[in-house]
Amino acid sequence: KNQVEQSPQSLIILEGKNCTLQCNYTVSPFSNLRWYKQDTGRGPVSLTIMTFSENTKSNGRYTATLDADTKQSSLHITASQLSDSASYICVGTPGGYNKLIFGAGTRLAVHP
Amino acid sequence: NAGVTQTPKFRVLKTGQSMTLLCAQDMNHEYMYWYRQDPGMGLRLIHYSVGEGTTAKGEVPDGYNVSRLKKQNFLLGLESAAPSQTSVYFCASSQGAGELFFGEGSRLTVL
């Protein structure tokens, strides 16, 4: 069964600190792995899309990693800002535009 | 460039009432989708469309209907609303299997 599990469910960090969010995926056949950021009351916004051959991809202070052997991905946020407070959603794509498997998300709160 | 626009943003219905959610995109994308988002769960696909005049069922299609009469619009209808359809609904569009662009969401409460 295709599924995406994220940990932790929620996280609180202080402004300026780094953090890492985890994603375990069981997706077959594997096409790509995506990370989205969803601000409260808003729609998800794409951060990165990684294919099988990519093991690291950065978008500003966000760096996603992909380990195809262990089927794990992580999203590392560097020097967190208050605006990073949001839910971060991991999405596995087993192939096909209509087959995205969404994780439940990690809710991050950055406190001053 | 508005991207993906959903209307209405909020709606309260009584059980058995009907309504339509409208999604409009100005990016000339072929593919459009309707998702629902419930607490503690990932987004789930309701229906999708790969082009004007075509629609297909997603993971949770029961109780919903859709239409794509124009390329830029994708309508989601509830013929007889039930409390289980209380949710936040997101429309998205994409060009092929690429990046999804989401709307701001429509929060529906069914009493």
The geometry of chain B reads as: globular
Number of strands of chain B: 11
- The string of secondary-structure elements of chain B, in order, is EEEEEEEEEEE
Share of residues in strands of chain A: over 45%
Largest interface: A-B, 20 and 26 residues
Quote the distance from N terminus to C terminus of chain A: 41 Å
Please bin the fraction of helical residues of chain B.
Answer: under 10%
Quaternary state of the chains: heterodimer
Give the class of chain A from helix and strand content and strand pairing.
mainly beta
Question: What is the average of the pLDDT values of chain A?
Answer: 94
Total DSSP helices of chain A: 0
Largest sheet features of chain A: 6 strands, mixed
Number of separate helices of chain B: 0
Rounded to an integer in angstroms, the radius of gyration calculated over CA atoms of chain B is: 13 Å
Q: Level of helix content of chain A?
A: under 10%
Task: Provide the descriptors you would attach to this structure in a database record.
heterodimer; A: 112 residues; mainly beta; 6-stranded mixed sheet; 57% strand; B: 111 residues; 4-stranded antiparallel sheet; 11 strands; 52% strand; globular
